[in-house]
Design goal:
By secondary structure, this protein is an alpha/beta fold. It contains 13 helices and ten strands. The strands form two sheets. It has a seven-stranded mixed sheet, with helices on both faces. A three-stranded antiparallel sheet has the order 1-3-2. The longest helix is centred in the N-terminal third of the chain and has 29 residues, at 3-31. The structure holds S-adenosylmethionine. S-adenosylmethionine binds next to α8, α9 and β5.
């Protein structure tokens, strides 16, 4: 190994050891109104950041020490603080709001429970869920008794899903679909986007019963109640409605263990008309499970917290299950974006 390679490795090692601290600096930079100061300003003095953050001088010194060391901020020769180039692009982009919601999700929902990863792997169970108040054996069941966590989750999920959905809208045509089933559709965000683009299609959104009011409200707000209906369903235990042209799993199968994924895809097969198709839209790993990095890092949350035993599966894993069930004409579409989204489409003859 060359000297340069070793130095790069040491820097990586430092982030591996102190990754949780790096995240805390980012989270604090958001919550304590450091980054947002730059929405209207190009540079800031220490005093200006003190007044924006409402921190004591000593506390702000520590925070700015971290943010500059992480190269999120930089100091000019007058001692003023500026955003680094990458951060300027991020903070001024449409993605900033999505990023903020992702950080909040990590901080409020994923952070503590991920500390239970070793135990979760040993026990093959989502033991990290114990940090989330409420009753239920999955994060989603707990939403019913934990409004705060539910709103953090859906704010993040909706912004992230809307951001990602552009890949699906660009790459898959729904023009010939009369009926589409959106399995575990959250507040119906994906169906609403698709319905706006495909005026001849009707959508049935399924999710847990307690989501009914919110989904219906969202649909009403968009004036789409004629074409989007909600069917309360425990997707693991209830039979799916049938006669669909497409069954959509949008950010859904990753939350479940492999046998459950197979069970859900069998239900999808039965719910389809002959000639129909299943569409899996989600982050996916590569065939060898050696990346992308974001897919592997995100899997810690799915193992330790979400529903127990999910992870970001490879597209190949889905192919094997789909072929076993009897789907044909399998297709994979790489979305080639910042996130590891891919689309798998498979047909029922
Ligand atoms: C990761 S979120 C995805 C939501 C939406 N598809 C999106 O991408 O924005 C998973 C969704 O599955 C729902 N879900 C979890 N367990 C379920 C179950 N047993 N039956 C029905 N829906 C379930 C959750 O309530 C949640 O809305």
């Amino acid at each position: 190994m060359s000297n340069d390679e070793y130095i790069a490795f040491e820097e990586r090692l430092m982030l591996l050891l102190h990754g949780s601290a790096a995240f805390q600096y980012v989270n604090a930079g958001i919550k304590l109104k450091i980054f947002c100061y730059y929405l209207d300003h190009e540079r800031a003095t220490f005093a200006e950041l003190r007044s924006s953050s409402e921190l004591s001088g000593d506390a702000l010194e520590c925070l700015l020490f971290g943010l500059t060391s992480l190269k999120l901020l930089r100091r000019n020769n007058r001692g003023e603080y500026l955003l680094s180039k990458g951060m300027v692009a991020l903070v001024k982009s449409d993605f900033w709001q999505v990023f903020e919601s992702m950080v909040e999700f990590q901080s409020e929902i994923a952070y503590m429970g991920q500390g239970k990863f070793v135990e979760a792997l040993r026990k093959n169970s989502n033991v990290g869920l114990e940090y989330i108040a409420g009753s239920g054996s999955t994060l989603y069941e707990k939403f019913q008794s934990n409004d705060r966590i539910k709103s953090v989750f859906y704010r993040y999920m909706e912004l992230y899903s809307k951001y990602a959905a552009k890949h699906l809208l660009e790459r898959v045509s729904f023009r010939d679909d009369k009926r589409i089933l959106d399995v575990g559709g959250g507040r119906g965000g994906a169906s609403i986007l698709l319905a706006k683009e495909n005026e001849e299609s009707e959508f049935v959104v399924t999710d847990l019963k307690f989501m009914e009011f919110e989904i219906n409200e969202e649909v009403k707000k968009c004036g789409l109640e004629e074409r989007i209906s909600f069917e309360p369903l425990d997707i693991l235990n209830d039979t799916f409605p049938s006669e669909f042209d497409s069954v959509l799993f949008f950010h859904q199968l990753v939350i479940w263990a492999k046998p459950q994924v197979e069970k859900l895809l069998i239900k999808a097969f039965r719910a389809l008309r002959p000639g129909g198709r299943v569409i899996i839209f989600s982050s996916m790993a590569n065939q060898e499970y050696s990346g992308p990095l974001m897919a592997s890092l995100d899997s810690v949350y799915f193992k330790a917290i979400a529903a127990g035993n999910g992870m970001i599966y490879s597209w190949k894993e889905y192919f094997l299950i789909l072929e076993k069930i009897g789907f044909s004409d399998l297709e994979r579409i790489d979305c080639l974006g910042w996130t590891p989204h891919q689309i798998v489409v498979a047909h029922k003859k």
